[in-house]
Amino acid sequence: MPPKPRRFLALAQLFLLECLNPDRRGFPLYFRPSDLPQWFRENRFWGRIPTPVPPPRPWLNYDLVDWVERLRPRTVLEWGSGGSTLWFSKICERMVSVEDDAGWYEAVLASLPTGLGNQVELSLFNNEQDYLSGLDAFAASRPDLILIDGSWRVACLEASLSSLRAGSFVVIHDSNHPEIMRALGRLGEEFFRQDRFGPCFGVKNFRAWTLLRRRQSA
User: Fold this and answer.
1) pLDDT tens digit string along 158-171?
2) How many domains does the chain have?
């Protein structure tokens, strides 16, 4: 039986609750007026289907998706595969995606179109050491963008920043988790940091994300 549509007042209440959500933990609330119709449409019939390929966009924040599509990175590493893997494959020249859940890995692999050649490298690792080795696939030439949206996020963050080159970016999704916030709080002045909290494709609740890049020396 399909879910009943939410009434406008119920949606307005849900929107207000998300704006006041204590899980923001101080992250700046961000959404554009043009985001609201999209969010209301998605949540009128809310009931996310557990599939790694949610059409038409991955389960990332609206503004994050728009920023990546403007950036159009040539090379991407993502820790945590899913709809973003298929989405990135249409944007970048080369991407490496690392997953630790075997069932999810198989579902994502089946969703990728044939003929991608060496453009997408999808790997399955179920321990931290091997999981972090995804960064080694780029050798000395680090990726333009690293998306951290899987397991061992603090370790992934530390590995990413230790060799982040100027002009590259690290994005951490769901970065309002206390453990991640503590790691972010230990960052030095050499990194530029931007935090945001707002609506996300295919997800009822607002989500947090953080953008990091190395500051250019004077």
Assistant:
1) 999 987 888 899 99
2) 1
